[in-house]
Amino acid sequence: MNGLKLPGVWKTLVDAVNPVKGSSSNGQNYRMLWTGLGAQLARDVPFSAICWSILEPTRRSILSFMGEEPRAGV
């Protein structure tokens, strides 16, 4: 390893949580919270649309087959 000292676990965790070094602007730190928002919405919105377009009609048909009235909040 030629005398190369690897960073410890604590330093690695701190660097992962705070990737912006030397930035005194808090706005930049808060902006990092929104970094993956676009990717998450691109994944979750189609999934939710498919899930709810299938789940609700299926739930209603099962409840009507069993003779129960569909209620909100069940």
Automatic annotation (TrEMBL):
The keyword Transmembrane helix applies. It is found in: Mitochondrion inner membrane. InterPro entries: MCP_dom_sf, Mtm1-like. Keywords: Membrane, Mitochondrion, Mitochondrion inner membrane, Repeat, Transmembrane, Transmembrane helix, Transport. It is a multi-pass membrane protein. GO terms for biological process: mitochondrial transmembrane transport. One of its GO terms (cellular component) is mitochondrial inner membrane. The keyword Mitochondrion applies. SUPFAM superfamilies: Mitochondrial carrier. PANTHER family: FI19922P1-RELATED, MITOCHONDRIAL SUBSTRATE CARRIER FAMILY PROTEIN. Belongs to the mitochondrial carrier (TC 2.A.29) family. This is Uncharacterized protein. It comes from Brassica oleracea var. oleracea.
